[in-house]
Amino acid sequence: MSCRWISRLLFFCFFFTSLTYAASTQKEDPIKIKYERNTIVVQNTSNKVVNLRDAKIQFNYYGRILKITNAQENIQGIHFQSQDLRQSGGNKVYTVTISTDKKNLLNPNASLKLKLVSDKKDVPHDFKFFTAPQPVNVTVSVQNKDWVETISVCNTSGASIPLKNIEFDFNYSKPMSNKIWGSPWAEWKLASQTGNQVVLIGGTPDTPALPSDPGCMNPLTIKFNASPSAPAPTGPFVFKAEMGNTPSVGNLHVSLASSPDGSLPNPSITIAGPNTNVQKAMTWGTSWDLTNLPVGSYTISGSTVSNGSQSYVATPVNAQVNSQQTTNANITYQPAPTAAVTVTLNNPPTAQVPLTLTGKNGTINQTVSNGTVLHLANDTYQVTSNIAGYNSVATPNPLVIPNATSLSISYTAINTGDAGSRKINFVNQCSFPVWFGFISGATPNKSGGETCATDADCYPNNTCVDRGAGGKHCFWTNPVPANNNFKLAPNGGVNSVVIPYTKLPNGATWSGAAAGRTNCTSAGCETADCGNGEGGCPAGRGFKQPATQAEFTFQTSATDFYDVSAVNGLNIPVAMTPVNTPVNSNDPYNCGAPGSTTPNTNIGACTWDLNPIYTEFNWVRAGGSACTSSSDCQSGSVCGLSVNPGKTPLLQKTCGKLIGYWNANEICGVQNNYGAPFNCQQQLPSPNNAYKMFQLLGCAPIPSCYQNGAQNNCCGCVNWDQEGVGVPPAPFTEQCVNSNNYWVSNVMPGLKWIKQACPSVYTYPYDDMSSTFVCRVMKDRNGTQVNSVDYTITFCPGGKTGGVSPS
């Protein structure tokens, strides 16, 4: 696969003047239009100056307008035109244009009055106000790959850019192609090419706005076919859009001091302010620059870090970002106030034992002996000490500091006859309650067939489930906690289940998935519902999607297979970690921890900082008002897709609490006629012209690009390590046999934002090559060696909620 990078060109297009504002077309429109006494009154109701240069006023009128005159002297260059839309006596659409012969500024609370002279006594109606596209502050880069020239436009303006009426100007020495595409879909057209100067126009009413993106994570792309040897497009690049009032923006320079202790891990730094909440793992002694931030007050904070015996904290810093200025902020770490806790070990199997303390501010892993004194920062810790072949009980648990001064841990050997059973620990590090649940896989009956009449036809630890029209089938029995309580308290709630030793002829012990459900009542759960309210999931039932799932197949003697899946979207972050089984440094997928906020060998940590490229990827609670972007919503709500049973369409863009994230595959599965930006029913171009977009999103029935002999009409396959994602290269991950350019351009961007937030998560049907983990630890069971790995499933690992707020 050939790839040529044009030198990464960075250009900035600035607004012409700080006093020039285009009228907003958002919900709070500052331009109000009314008609009184043969006069059209255009009023600026905002407290900002509005530029009327090249503005248009459109309205319907039955009859013929003879002329429109300016009733004032302060506005110059009024012209009008009409478009005859009459059908058997219908209306005409008239457009009034305010020409470019002057900079026409409309002051706050001022009005423009246009006198209308016509042949009828009718009243104009359906007024619409449009501003001409204005230059917007963006960053541009150019790349040619596989004979496709890609211009990436990053929104560094500090505000969301509407894409309903846009223009892009640049220089190109070759004849410009008329076939132009990109993401999001904007119906780009070649308006003109004069010499080397190219003008493209685009935008549709359905094109989503481009969010502010100071980190350039999700650019708008403009693509056309071009030879790799052809000269690249060059600047000056000018991107124009119908912007609202230009926000004042400034810059923030954050410096992290050197580590106060050489053994400390790198901290995560969070910057929160107006329309901004970003997080980054910073290396000690480095800096972080954020440009074009909205003016306002920002809080810079850092995560608690620990060397095992001493925690360190950073005092949050408040910084005021001012217009066109750079504000400096310095973050330093100091030892956290601690309390001494003496550890007592009862019947420990070894002199030194592993100890894990999971608190709200982080996790401490330490090896302790009887009498060890720990110096712990104030927090509430869940205590675990996992040693193969032993159960442990800690008292008190949770350990509350500074109240507690001692910690006692007792160990009991496990009978070897219990080897082969599997214990799954659940830990909730979310700031809200979570109800864990299981869904189980189907199994053959005792005769090797598929159907059953009663439980007696199924193997032990299996049950016969009536699937209605699908008949009765055997399924694994879902495990239940000893206290029959599936609810995990926020900020550290724990529980566990035990899956008994079972051996099927196919070698399986149990297979299925676990997920965290939110906002559960006796009537059901808001996310990941499985049909039994706050209780366990009935066998044979699945989770209602989107739901993040820990999926696994436990085997009697062979290796286990497991992953964390977001193939159908996400509700909350999830991590799955084998207990007391170190990662194989020669194979990061051997006993690794998908979803973990701690980096595995060669696999990047999951920050769970989810930054969807489209507003439609936000999954919000239904019942809010319609929206086009989150700026339309009140504080605490975002704009996204909500499910509205009984309404048409089923999926609607509304304001609401963020309860999870969709992906395009799930959106088309729920509403198969959904339009832009996913275009589920769109016929694909050659060589996939036998399929529609929803089939490419689900990779069904299109074969994988990983298969031997795969052609360029295959589906899926990304060498993620070449896309800047923390996934190990070959030989740890299988590399693509072939590639489908249309999939790469139109499907992969809708997956990459998830993979960037968690490199180890499973994002699409063929992503198993970078997301499937294996593990095996053998123990003796009455003379037979059996696989006995236990696992911990953590919800919101490290307290990372992914931005969701289901409470």
Automatic annotation (TrEMBL):
InterPro entries: Osmotin/thaumatin-like_sf (IPR037176), Thaumatin (IPR001938)
Signal sequence range: 1-22
Tree of life domain: Bacteria
Keywords in alphabetical order: Signal
SUPFAM superfamilies found in the cross-reference section: Osmotin, thaumatin-like protein
PANTHER family: THAUMATIN FAMILY PROTEIN-RELATED (PTHR31013), THAUMATIN-LIKE PROTEIN (PTHR31013:SF2)
Protein name: Thaumatin domain-containing protein
Organism of derivation: Legionella wadsworthii
